[in-house]
Each structure stands twice: as C-alpha cells, then as structure tokens.
Amino acid sequence: FAVWVKVLTLGIFEVISSLAVTGIVGQDVVLPCQISTRTQPDNMEVQWKKIIQTAIETVYEYRAWTGQDVPGQKYQGRTVLLKDGFTSGNVSLKLKNVQPADGGTYSCIVRSNAWSADAATELQIADSSAVLSR
Ligand SMILES: *[C@@H]1O[C@H](CO)[C@@H](O)[C@H](O)[C@H]1NC(C)=O
Questions:
Q1: Going from the N-terminus, what domains does the chain have, and what CATH number goes with each?
Q2: 16 lines ligand 1 (CB under 6 A)
Q3: Model's pTM, two decimal places?
Q4: So what's the pLDDT on residue 125?
Q5: Which among 18, 27, 32 has a CA at the least distance from the CA of 126?
Q6: Mutate-to-test residue for ligand 1 from 30, 35, 46, 60, highest number of ligand atoms within 8 A of CB
Q7: Which of 21, 22, 11, 19 is nearest to 89 (CA)?
Q8: Which tens digits make up the pLDDT trace of 61-83?
Q9: Which UniProt keywords apply (predicted)?
Q10: Average pLDDT, 10 consecutive residues per value, the chain (134 residues)
Q11: Which single residue of 4, 101, 108, 118 could bond 33 by disulfide (Cβ 3.0 to 4.6 Å)?
C-alpha cells in the first residue's frame, strides 16, 4: 500500500523529442521536446544543453520556482521557449538564426522535486546559400 501511494505522488513523467530536425542557415528552427504528463511537474526545471565531444554547453535554462529563464552565454537573444507551453508540457526550444556551427546533438532535460528525464535530438544544418549562390 505504501509503495502504491508513493508512485501516485511522485509525479513520474517521460520526456519525448524527435531523433533529428533540420535547420536552414539564417532561419529559425524548433527543437522539439514534450513532457508526457498534462500537469506541470512540481518545481520544474527545464534545461537545454548541447553535447559537444569534450564538453556540455548550456543553451537555455528555466526554473519554475523563480520564473527565471537564462540563455547560455553563446545563445543570448537566440532562444525562445514559449511560456504557455509549460502548462501543456511543450518545452520545445526555438533557436533563432541558425548557424552552421549549431549542428550537433541537443539534450532536453526536465527535472522536478522527485524525478528527472531527458531526451536528445540531432540538429542537422542545411545551407541554403549553396543553392542561392549560383
Ligand atoms: C510546441 O511549441 C513550438 C513552439 O515553441 C511549436 O512549434 C510546436 O508546434 C509545439 N508543439 C506542440 C505539440 O504543440
């Protein structure tokens, strides 16, 4: 009985993304990320990180308890996470003005008081100038 009560109150959730998205240089791209629950986890924290061979770079962070969102140093003014998505579990990140160097693996990490889950997506870059320059 005690175990069952725990499962109900823990607020376990999953995080879902897609395997890969394609961004076009100079345009905006949405990195998809969805929380499996309908209700926002308690004290939710959302982090987007870029995984680079030797390091992990912070792209964006949001903490529900302060309402503060902080873009990573190299991503100032380039990230948008729509606040109304928090209630529906949509924590997809819009990355503006995609650059060739943005290509790579991005991880969406969602934490609450009692649980944490993450999902990764691969950003592939398509260069439109290769087509336009001729
Ligand atoms: C989630 O939000 C993004 C914009 O940030 C939007 O492009 C996308 O369609 C939304 N996804 C769903 C499932 O509503």
A1: 20-124 (2.60.40.10)
A2: no
A3: 0.86
A4: 96
A5: 27
A6: 30
A7: 11
A8: 999 889 888 999 999 999 999 87
A9: Disulfide bond, Glycoprotein, Immunoglobulin domain, Membrane, Signal
A10: 52 90 96 87 92 92 90 94 84 96 96 92 85 50
A11: 108
